[in-house]
Design a protein that fits this description.
single chain, 373 residues, alpha/beta, Rossmann fold, 11-stranded mixed sheet, globular
């Protein structure tokens, strides 16, 4: 209770500071892949769910940028077996509890992000922060049953009590509607009051989160969908930007292309040389190295889960090679290049659909981006 009282006081102070500053125009760079305005980040709770919020922040924003520390996601049952893990932090450009940038005109469109299997709500923080810098309010939660914290204990045999895998029931299908309810409530109260447009809402997700995105595609609250490296066909007449990596060894690009071909209103973007994790920041935490250092030679591993998680941990990362059966390239595309492509096309797509502005998705801008409409 004390923690949430402190949070409420911080949010109240943030709201008061923003109101005193007054409206600020977005003043965005012309390049959609370029970072726009400063970004703030806050964590709150809704109906028992942790909710991460990235939002456009005031030009007066100052302070240290947030880092994402995945060491906090490792459960005690795993550190008891392996010791404390040396996991690099992920640097971001979002500033915690920065003052909201009061919209100078129409409120900000909203985006919900759904993470993948073995990920967290912060697994694609470069992507979510970028959208916030371009004038969107983005929210995400942890899907209990497929977070890193849930699946790491399942590496061991017998598994600790906190091993939890949900392969059959998609927890995102129950969590995303709660995030919609959160945004509806936030539009009328709290620091986002009057600043967000919940009638201009998009849903996006990576891997299993792409499956969640497609699984909720019939919900007419979502005016745009961006499934990334996952998700089957979409039959509702709703704008879809489907992204895939040519060298993805986890969710094959050919499967994404097939889903595109039978979808109703679908733009397909395939990134040459990109692997599964190109749509996240998970390569930064070096899970492949940690597996080599901490798991090699152990006799208490669940071989099936270990193989599955190791594939997920390295596919698309610079220190691993693509599977020759799905990709002829000898190495994955540089992640900086794929980030620019993802950020560019997600931005212009959402701008066209939710802001009703900009050129929309154009071909020929990146040599590594192959687009079908």
């Amino acid at each position: 209770m004390k923690r949430f009282l402190v949070l409420a006081l911080a949010l109240s102070a943030c709201k008061k500071e923003a109101e005193e500053l007054g409206p600020e125009p977005l003043d965005l760079p012309a390049d959609p892949a370029a970072t726009g305005v400063p970004v703030g980040v806050q964590t709150t709770e809704w109906d028992g769910l942790p909710v991460e919020i990235w939002y456009p922040a005031s030009d007066t924003t100052s302070g240290k940028s947030e880092v994402v520390d995945y060491g906090d996601e490792v459960p005690n049952s795993v550190t008891d077996l392996l010791g404390v893990m040396d996991i690099p932090v992920i640097d971001t450009f979002a500033v915690r509890d920065a003052p909201l940038r009061i919209p100078d005109g129409a409120p900000y469109p909203t985006v919900i992000f759904s993470h993948g299997f073995g990920g967290t709500r912060e697994q694609s923080v470069t992507f979510t922060s970028h959208l916030a810098s371009r004038g969107y309010v983005v929210v995400a939660t942890d899907h209990h049953g497929r977070t890193l914290q849930n699946v790491l204990p399942c590496l061991f045999e017998p598994p600790p009590d906190d091993c939890l895998l949900e392969f059959i029931d998609d927890p995102g299908l129950r969590d995303v509607p709660d995030l919609v309810a959160f945004l509806d409530d936030a539009s009328g109260s709290g620091f986002l009051k009057g600043a967000i447009d919940t009638d201009a809402m998009a849903l996006t997700g990576h891997s299993a989160g792409g499956g969640t995105t497609v699984g909720l595609s019939d919900d007419e609250r979502f005016k745009a969908l961006i499934p990334m490296a996952g998700g089957t066909e979409v039959t509702r007449d709703v704008p879809v930007l489907r992204m895939a990596g040519e060298c993805d060894g986890v969710v094959l690009a050919s499967d994404s292309a097939d889903s595109h071909a039978i979808s109703t209103d679908d733009i397909y973007l395939e990134i040459t040389g990109a692997g599964h994790l190109a749509f996240s920041d998970m390569c930064d935490i070096e899970l492949g190295r940690l597996a080599d250092e901490l798991l090699t030679g152990r006799d208490d591993l669940n071989g099936t889960v270990n193989d599955l998680l190791l594939d997920l941990a390295v596919d698309g990362c610079a220190d691993s090679a693509p599977l020759s059966t799905v990709c002829g390239a000898g190495e994955f595309l540089n992640l900086g290049v794929s980030n620019d492509i993802i950020n560019h096309y997600a931005t212009v797509f959402l701008d066209e659909v939710l802001y009703r502005s900009g050129p929309g998705v154009e071909t020929g801008l990146f040599g590594e981006a192959v687009i079908s409409q």
